[in-house]
Amino acid sequence: MEDQQIVDDPTKINLYHFVYNVVAPITAPIGHQIEDDVSEPETEWRAPGGVAYRVNMQDENSARWWRYVRGTAKGCRGKFTGSLAEMLCCEHRKPHWFVSHWWGEPVLDFVMCLKEHCDTFKLDAAEVLYWVCAYANNQTRITHELGTEGPLLSPFFKALELAQGAVLVLDSGTEVVRRMWCGFENVVIARQQKPVVLVTFVDGCGTALAVKPTPADVAKANSYYPARPAPHHHAQRQKGFPLESLQTMLVTRLQTAQTALPEDRVMITETVQQELGGFEAANSQMRLLAAENLAAKGGYLGETVVRELGAAVRPFNLTCRAAEFEEAVERYNLSLRRCARLYVTRGPTSPSGALQGLDDTKAACIGDMLGDAAHLAVLRLAGGSDVGNIGMIAISDALRTLLQLQQISLYLNRTKVTDGGAIAIGNGLRGLEQLQQITLQFIGTQVADGGAVAIGSALQHLKQLRQITLVFEDTQVADGGAIAIGNGLQHLKQLQQITLRFESTKVADGGAIAIGTALQQLKQLQQIVLSFWRTQVADGGAIAIGNVLQQLKQLQQITLYFNNTAVTHETRQTIREALEKPSVRVTMH
């Protein structure tokens, strides 16, 4: 027998080390022989020493080596043999997330990746259950555990069926896409259409990639003012994800992946080709994830990315800047035919302070392409300083064809849009009966009552709306526009969240009272933000709103801004005291 080489640096211990020298020994009875999966353990597995030994002895019926270990499972009296999960938990539990990974990833890096996944999705680390093969499978009887009837009856497949989604841990060399068992897992993930999150370890911490904003992104968006949308925080959070990993994924061919045992590779390949429809759907899924995220990182909407979007096995998500979008259309024939979510973001601010991004020409290009976007469910556009009414008319004309649209966000702050553009937007929204969420921002524009009236009129037709954000800060809107918005809101019986901001406008008590009257009809309302900062609203308008809010029994969060108005301190204090309840969080400014 030979003792195993010791690894002195714990940050270098990978799962091969950990299973070979810790997990298997402590879950085996004393004197138990553990069957290895390979004819001879790799040198890098042999650490840390003292727990497990290798014996140069072949079993009569196989070409595999055996190891002798001394079991150390507390209280097992030499009889316990099972997985580490069974050792730590004596009850059956359903996994929330399936983890696909390569065992060569350092264990501590792997843990940090799962921590990042927890944080990104706002999961309770004490409650969420991850299925990890090394800990869930019995490593002392691995051949028996995996079975002899093929991968479709293996623990991997059963766990994937039960899990709500998959976490793909990308090691620094992206080895995970070259391992056949990981390939099998991703074939099943693609076939079952499970959500997939990519995580990796970079510069001492984990970083996660998801195809749409996560709960952490949404929480951050709700905590900022001026508001920055969740897709913005989504893009910012993912900036650190290494391009090299995504570029490797972009050429994924899982059928060329390797296994420790040649017979496993043959078995998996035959199963995938004969019973799961081949590798191509999984290859496309991996390449599509890479393409979506390369585009989102900015500057990578090239020919290969566009080709993978065009060959997508599912509706794809596209995040890019306006200039990149226009170039991809003109040079590579980008199509939105299979696009589910489109986020067009701003570029960097120019030296002169102008917001670079969407202008009228690029808006017209997007409008033309939206005509084919029959699957589009989410549209977010951020305008640059040069976009005006012509661009908004082009976009609005296309909106009429997007009958599946559920969310729309138009950020037109400090643009050239005036009432003409806002009226066009209102006209475009009228027929979108599936809309559940609207965000329209016109900060620092020349939009006035005419535009607000058109938007208020459109709201009457959008009966499925659950969430609405309208921001008219520093515009020409006055009571006429606010009254029209109120008239539209009262038809939206399903509304749960409202944000209305009229800061630095000419809105006075008439507009505030109209908003209050509309709120009376919204019995499902749970969260409300109303801002009349630096307006002409006085005590009459504030009291009218306060009286209505007291009647809304479902409210959980109320935020009101009456600072820099004629509303007195006494009135604000009276409203606050009337609204405060144990079940309601009230913030008054």
Note down, in words, how this protein is organized:
α6 packs parallel to α7 and α15 packs parallel to α16. The chain is an alpha/beta fold and 589 residues long. 38% of the residues lie in helices and 16% in strands. The strands form 3 sheets. It has a 10-stranded parallel sheet with strand order 10-11-12-13-14-15-16-17-18-19. The chain has a 5-stranded mixed sheet with strand order 6-5-7-8-9.
What topology does this entry show?
Elements: E1 2-3, H1 15-26, E2 33-35, E3 52-58, E4 65-69, H2 84-88, E5 97-100, H3 107-120, E6 130-131, H4 133-136, H5 142-146, H6 155-162, E7 165-170, H7 180-192, E8 196-202, E9 205-209, H8 215-222, H9 230-237, H10 243-249, H11 262-275, H12 280-296, H13 303-310, E10 316-321, H14 322-332, E11 339-345, H15 360-370, E12 378-382, H16 389-399, E13 407-411, H17 419-429, E14 437-441, H18 449-459, E15 467-471, H19 479-489, E16 497-501, H20 509-519, E17 527-531, H21 539-549, E18 557-561, H22 569-579, E19 585-588
Parallel strand pairs: 5-6, 5-7, 7-8, 10-11, 11-12, 12-13, 13-14, 14-15, 15-16, 16-17, 17-18, 18-19
Antiparallel strand pairs: 1-3, 2-4, 3-4, 8-9
